[in-house]
Amino acid sequence: MSGLKTNIPKAKKQIDSCDHVVFIGSCFSEHLSKSMRDLGLHVSADQIGTLFHPFSISKVLRLAMTESSDDAIFQKEDVFLSWNFPSTLYALDEQSLRTSIDQALKNLHTSLRQANYLFITFGTNFYYFHQQEQIKVANCHKVPATEFEKRLASVHEVYEDYTLLLQELKIFNPALEIVFTVSPVRHGKDGLVENNRSKARLLEVIHSLVDAKLAQYFPAYEIILDELRDYRFFEADFVHPNTEAIRYVWNRFVATYFSEANLQLMEEVNQYLSAKNHRIMHKGSAAARKHEAHCEQLQTALKIKYPQLNWRYL
């Protein structure tokens, strides 16, 4: 590590085991949401898929809040896709895709209504504008590049959009705490200079929203690129943070947002998971049966003490 340390004050409102948390945006948020889900906490992060640009994220959040139908479905060969969603949402007929998208938006609507926290992760400030359709797209779906114009959104454009969006979210759910993060994953295909311009604009927008007291910021970007400024914390592509880096960010996240009760819960759940995931060498043996009984006892005790946990993931 570099010896630098990002100063992160403890969140005034902390996440407890009964809270509902929504993650949306770039793939980096998936790591944090998975770690929370693995503890049995109530996390929503998989309805939509990966979205990189602020405009794509705001579009989907507005569709979910207003329970609107998708207005950008199109056909590519024998597959139906949407300009508003990633390629993971597709179908072989329009109605099936519309049904899948409507269900995903309905689920997100419900999650946002229940949520105590919404974490939004921006990936890039570059977006693609479909010239014929005259719309911003969330994904090009491998359609020829000649159909798009690549644009870098201005700080003013994104700030105006999100000032309105955060006000809409607060009306929709007054109890919602909104936290932004910026993905530390470099978009190398844009070029390193261009990537830094993009990230700088995202950071400026977020800090302007924080200054206006509309949201909070969790510095995952700075933790990875300043505290862990060594390529041993990255995968072989030198772009994606590796398991050690993600674990480090997770620990900083927990220290910032988890209540004392949730920290205790995490310790107990991890003890149970450690026992549950222990490799049994001789199944059916007396030692194996004793271990299984021990795991059942731990699970029963946890269910009694923490009935609010989502045991589907434990």
SSE diagram, text form:
Blueprint: E1 20-25, H1 28-37, E2 42-44, H2 54-66, E3 73-76, E4 79-82, H3 94-114, E5 117-122, E6 126-130, E7 135-137, E8 148-152, H4 155-172, E9 177-182, H5 192-211, E10 216-217, H6 220-227, H7 243-257, H8 260-276, H9 286-305
Parallel strand pairs: 1-2, 1-5, 5-9, 9-10
Antiparallel strand pairs: 3-4, 6-7, 6-8
What number of structural domains do the residues give?
2
Q: What proportion strand?
A: 5-15%
The CATH topology assignment of the largest domain is Rossmann fold
Average pLDDT level: 93
Helix and strand run: EHEHEEHEEEEHEHEHHHH
Distance between the termini: 33 Å
Structural class comes to alpha/beta
> Can you name the CATH architecture of the largest domain?
3-Layer(aba) Sandwich
Side-by-side strand order of the widest sheet: 2-1-5-9-10
Shape: globular
DSSP helix count?
9
Extract low-pLDDT stretches: none
CATH uppermost class of the largest domain: Alpha Beta
Proportion in helices: 40-55%
Task: Report on the biggest sheet.
Answer: 5 strands, parallel
> Radius of gyration over alpha carbons?
21 Å
Number of strands: 10
Identify the CATH homologous superfamily of the largest domain: SGNH hydrolase
